[in-house]
Specification:
Elements lengths: L8 H9 L2 H19 L2 E7 L5 E6 H4 L3 H17 L2 H25 L3 H8 L7 E4 L2 H22 L22 H9 L7
Antiparallel strand pairs: 1-2, 1-3
């Protein structure tokens, strides 16, 4: 009876990297959408006296910490790409905290957007006020970013890492002076090892 074929390393490699791209793209997309929402118009107020006038309030006016926290979350995804497992865990925690803070800022400030727009019209919005969905989009996006960081934290040991090819291995040069280095090269030795 013939022997059963031996499993190859390819399925294990696929299993190790499965989900890395998905989590990374989800994290970047949600952090980017949360950052975008912070700069969009959240509320508009209109007055008809003394003449028609409309003012808008952006998320950065109402929740000024949301934009920087969203940018921190985006930067953490960039750092997550280049770090190894211990660094990735630290960055995932920092990014999750930043994204959670941005989501909380959006939720807490969403109701005050119309008041802020009305205040810009000296408290009179006789033409009415309107709100947009951007505060809620930003809050949901940044909450999704927190979830992506949590998944990345839990699975980062299984994700591929950058090569150690150019890392220092702790070896010191054997030749101390330039003349010694030239002699080592003449002898066929690498003076940097």
């Amino acid at each position: 009876m013939p022997d059963a074929p031996q499993p190859t390393a390819a399925p294990q490699r696929e299993r190790r990297t499965s989900g890395f791209g998905t989590v990374l793209l989800a994290g970047l997309a949600t952090a980017g959408l949360g950052t975008l929402a912070a700069g969009r118009t959240w509320a508009t107020a209109i007055t008809g006296t003394p003449g028609p006038r409309e003012v808008s309030v952006a998320g950065t006016d109402v929740a000024p910490v949301m934009l920087p926290l969203g940018l921190v979350a985006l930067a953490c995804w960039g750092a997550f790409l280049v770090l190894r497992t211990p660094g990735r865990r630290v960055v995932a925690v920092l990014g999750a905290l930043a994204a959670a803070g941005g989501a909380a800022a959006a939720l807490l400030s969403a109701g005050g957007a119309t008041d802020a727009a009305t205040d810009l019209l000296s408290g009179t919005a006789d033409g009415g006020t309107s709100t947009s969905a951007w505060p809620w989009v930003g809050a949901v996006a940044l909450a999704g970013c927190v979830v992506a960081f949590a998944v990345a934290f839990a699975r980062c040991a299984t994700y591929p890492q950058m090569s150690r090819r150019y890392d220092r291995d702790g070896a010191t040069t054997t030749a101390a002076t330039p003349a010694d280095q030239w002699r080592a090269m003449d002898d066929g030795r690498d003076p940097t090892v």
